[in-house]
Specification:
215 residues; alpha/beta; seven-stranded mixed beta sheet; 7 helices; globular
Length: 215
């Protein structure tokens, strides 16, 4: 499977919802700067969906169904810190499964845990993430779980930019990913709704093809 869109029709609906609530912001003429230093005409903040009950519920249900239909034998749901924690907790509650979360690094005090919650060797874990860009930090979380003897059955996320590097990274690590929506469905929706002029849409597509060099 590697990376797949769970349901194309739903992907368009989720993209529309995220745009409507302002979780996805498009600004081609005044680009954002990512932590990596990349200039980007888009900024995706899926945390905002938590403030909108209808959208929050829709995402929770969609993730839960996508996970149930794409993966089997799940023992534990794990949220990827930080934005994947609330989404993962909602999914775990919906599926009636235990929940844990994984930090990007161990705490510097107390028990110095990287993994919070009860996890046992051999348990099958499904990771929940809010957003996939290159996949690096998400896959590092999967490796941390493997190091304590857990089996990572896969990952689910709300949105992916669909970069080729993320495809390569997930394939290399042998982790399957199912997502609710992606950049292509976002652009298609913006184009259908005539949200931007053709030159702006062209810019958005150019960035998607070579984000590191754009801007």
């Amino acid at each position: 499977m590697s990376i797949k869109i769970y349901n194309p029709k739903l992907a368009s609906e989720i993209a529309a919802d995220l745009l409507k609530i302002g979780a996805i912001k498009l600004s081609p003429k005044d680009p954002f700067t990512w932590a990596s230093g990349w200039k980007s005409p888009i900024y995706c903040d899926n945390r905002l969906s938590l403030s909108f009950p209808e959208v929050r519920s829709k995402i929770k249900t969609a993730l839960s169904i996508a996970i149930s239909k794409s993966f089997s034998g799940i023992d534990v749901v794990a949220g990827v810190a930080t934005a994947g924690i609330p989404q993962g907790a909602l999914v775990a509650e919906e599926l009636g499964l235990p929940f844990i979360y994984v930090r990007s690094k161990s705490k510097g005090h107390g028990l110095q845990n990287m993994i919070e919650g009860k996890i046992e060797k051999g348990q099958k874990v499904l990771l929940v993430e809010d957003l996939i860009s290159t996949g690096g930090s998400s896959l590092a979380t999967a490796e941390a779980l493997k190091e304590v003897g857990a089996e990572v059955v896969g990952m689910a996320a709300i949105f992916t930019y669909g970069f080729s590097i993320s495809e390569e990274n997930f394939k290399q690590k042998g982790v399957d990913l199912v997502v609710l929506s992606d950049y292509n469905h976002l652009i298609d929706h913006a184009q259908d709704e005539r949200m931007f002029e053709n030159d702006v849409l062209k810019t958005l597509k150019e960035w998607r093809n070579d984000p590191a060099a754009w801007g």
